[in-house]
């Protein structure tokens, strides 16, 4: 019975800002911001993602812009040090990459596996994103695809190690 009681404590009936970001729900965002003007837009969910990261992953460009205009950090990172710009490169969404750069996203940041934004685009074959980054951010140098694969594997091991450490 204690497991059920613990579960009930974590269960929520109402959607939150993370749900709104996943869905691109402007109404939910507006209602949440009007009810809580001190809302931390850079807070991370249980998986380490900010609302902006979730909106980027789900391709909600206009929602991303609304978050950025409301004060979200364009350079926020997840638990592995991946930026929202890296997330947009991973997804290959050039419109969101362009938006993030307009809001001052840093292109030279590297995650825990020493990968930058261009490395993510190359790693996942996002040729339009690679071309866009090459044309707009000449200071971003990517490694070879083989080196990126090895870095990605390393990042995976880091994630697994953190998960097992948190459980133990």
Automatic annotation (TrEMBL):
<dbReference type="InterPro" id="IPR036770">
    <property type="entry name" value="Ankyrin_rpt-contain_sf"/>
</dbReference>
<protein>
    <recommendedName>
        <fullName>Protein fem-1 homolog B</fullName>
    </recommendedName>
</protein>
<keyword id="KW-0677">Repeat</keyword>
<feature type="repeat" description="ANK">
    <location>
        <begin position="80"/>
        <end position="112"/>
    </location>
</feature>
<feature type="repeat" description="ANK">
    <location>
        <begin position="47"/>
        <end position="79"/>
    </location>
</feature>
<keyword id="KW-0833">Ubl conjugation pathway</keyword>
<dbReference type="InterPro" id="IPR002110">
    <property type="entry name" value="Ankyrin_rpt"/>
</dbReference>
<dbReference type="Pfam" id="PF12796">
    <property type="entry name" value="Ank_2"/>
</dbReference>
<comment type="pathway">
    <text>Protein modification; protein ubiquitination.</text>
</comment>
<keyword id="KW-0040">ANK repeat</keyword>
């Amino acid at each position: 019975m204690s497991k059920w009681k613990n579960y009930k404590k974590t269960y929520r009936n109402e959607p939150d800002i993370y749900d709104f970001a996943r869905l691109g729900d402007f109404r939910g965002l507006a209602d949440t911001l009007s009810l809580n003007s001190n809302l931390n837009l850079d807070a991370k969910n249980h998986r380490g993602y900010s609302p902006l990261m979730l909106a980027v992953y789900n391709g909600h460009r206009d929602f991303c812009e609304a978050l950025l205009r409301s004060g979200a950090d364009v350079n926020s990172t997840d638990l592995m040090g991946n930026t929202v710009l890296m997330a947009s490169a991973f997804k290959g969404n050039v419109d969101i990459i362009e938006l993030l750069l307009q809001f001052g996203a840093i292109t030279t940041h590297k995650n825990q596996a020493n990968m930058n934004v261009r490395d993510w685009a190359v790693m996942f074959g996002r040729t339009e994103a690679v071309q866009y980054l090459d044309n707009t951010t000449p200071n971003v140098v990517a490694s070879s695809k083989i080196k990126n694969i090895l870095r990605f594997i390393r990042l995976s091991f880091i994630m697994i190690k953190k998960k097992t450490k948190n459980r133990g």
